[in-house]
């Protein structure tokens, strides 16, 4: 992958500044598993009630990336502590769901890849086995959320685009065990997602409901986007990066072509500012942003650029650079006395709170910079 000298210099300088801040943040948040910040201070999801929160692997992921970048033991120690805390989640069936990949790929599996720790491999395989157990044989999809307390909505047949990012846990399990069942489940889900989630224009549904008994598709939902048929940007980025990862693990060209379709749609909708809205189809008078969608999509675009050359490679790299540079200028907290990096992350369009810090936005921003500078630990 060819990066112009000025762009490489920008990526290296931005990575150095980010790493310098993260060293201070790590010292302050060493005992935590953060999700967001309150008045510039990381919160903590490591307690008994919140240890199952789906983002609880990303702080460990940041620490493993920083350990790879610097070799400093503080990052490894914090990452290992994060991983061990997640044992309380791993041993609680009600807390396990389709997001096992988000929790144990950046923690246990990353640990095993770096250190060869057998306990970490065991954690990763336990998480993969549970994820595989969510597979619906009739519909060939992995079920999303568990039943929610006091909810009258039947979610047994629900699948979501986010799960494309959890499939690498299953690909990894097949590689480690030699058992093809894990990768077969992952590929079957990816095949279903290509048909049921990705629209003709390259945009993606967030939620698709199937009949859990027959596997027949029933309908799609707007989910965390503006509404049914809209274009939730983080969902587009999950699809883009997720299909790229399925291609990297399987070499199935259909996944590469799907990632490219989503990428072309995404690029065509990037505003001139480079700042990504919560939904590409949100009302024109709504200016809400989601920095996480920009960071995740940038990672997917960089991986896609690695598979291309010439003009196509340049298009994908330039789109990633445009978004990342826009984030650093407009939606980034360079104050080293505060804990977050990105400032305008949004979890869902219809939430009351918008444009705040979220840990996975910080993770994917760091990962994108490390990809551009060829210093990344491959976590997925």
List the strand order in the largest sheet.
Answer: 5-6-7
CATH top-level class: Mainly Alpha
CATH topology: Glycosyltransferase
Series of secondary-structure elements, N-terminal to C-terminal: HEEHHHHHEEEHHEEHHHHH
The overall pLDDT, averaged over residues, is 97
Strands, total number: 7
- Level-2 CATH architecture: Alpha/alpha barrel
Main β-sheet description: 3 strands, antiparallel
Q: What percent of the residues sit in helical stretches (DSSP H or I)?
A: 40-55%
Strand content: 5-15%
Catalogue the unreliable spans.
none
Count of alpha/pi helices = 13
Instruction: Domain count, please report it.
Output: 1
Distance between the termini: 19 Å
Binding site for substrate: 99, 162, 234, 238
Active site: 99 (nucleophile), 162 (proton donor)
Organism: Eisenbergiella massiliensis
Keywords: Hydrolase
């Amino acid at each position: 992958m060819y990066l112009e000298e000025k762009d490489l210099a920008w990526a290296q300088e931005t990575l150095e500044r980010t790493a310098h801040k993260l060293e201070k943040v790590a010292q302050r948040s060493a005992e935590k598993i953060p999700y967001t910040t309150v008045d510039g201070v990381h919160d903590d999801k490591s307690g008994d009630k919140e240890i199952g929160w789906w983002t609880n692997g990303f702080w460990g992921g940041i620490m493993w990336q920083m350990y790879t970048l610097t070799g400093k033991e503080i990052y490894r120690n914090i990452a290992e502590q994060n991983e061990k805390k997640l044992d309380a989640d791993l041993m609680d069936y009600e807390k396990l769901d389709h997001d096992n990949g988000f929790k144990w790929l950046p923690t246990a599996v990353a640990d095993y890849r770096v250190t060869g720790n057998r306990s970490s491999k065991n954690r990763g395989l336990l998480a993969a086995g549970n994820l595989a157990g969510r597979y619906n044989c009739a519909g060939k999809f992995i079920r999303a959320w568990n039943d929610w307390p006091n909810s009258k909505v039947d979610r047994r047949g629900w699948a979501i685009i986010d799960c494309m990012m959890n499939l690498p846990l299953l690909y990894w399990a097949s590689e480690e065990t030699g058992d093809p069942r894990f990768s077969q489940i992952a590929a079957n889900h990816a095949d279903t997602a290509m048909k049921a989630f990705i629209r003709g224009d390259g945009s993606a549904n967030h939620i698709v409901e199937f009949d859990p008994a027959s596997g027949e598709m029933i309908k799609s939902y707007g989910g965390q986007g503006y509404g049914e048929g809209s274009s939730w940007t983080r969902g587009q980025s999950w699809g883009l990066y997720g299909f790229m990862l399925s291609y990297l693990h399987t070499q199935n060209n259909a996944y590469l072509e799907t990632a490219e379709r989503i990428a072309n749609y995404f690029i065509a909708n990037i505003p001139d500012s480079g700042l990504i809205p919560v939904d590409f189809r949100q009302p024109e008078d709504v200016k809400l942003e989601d920095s996480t969608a920009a960071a995740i999509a940038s990672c997917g675009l960089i991986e896609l650029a690695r598979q291309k050359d010439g003009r196509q490679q340049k298009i994908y790299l330039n789109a990633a650079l445009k978004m990342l540079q826009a984030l650093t200028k407009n939606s980034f907290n360079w104050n080293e006395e505060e804990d977050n990096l990105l400032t305008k992350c949004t979890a869902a369009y219809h939430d009351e709170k918008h444009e705040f810090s979220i840990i996975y936005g910080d993770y994917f921003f760091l990962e994108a910079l490390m990809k551009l500078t060829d210093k990344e630990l491959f976590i997925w």
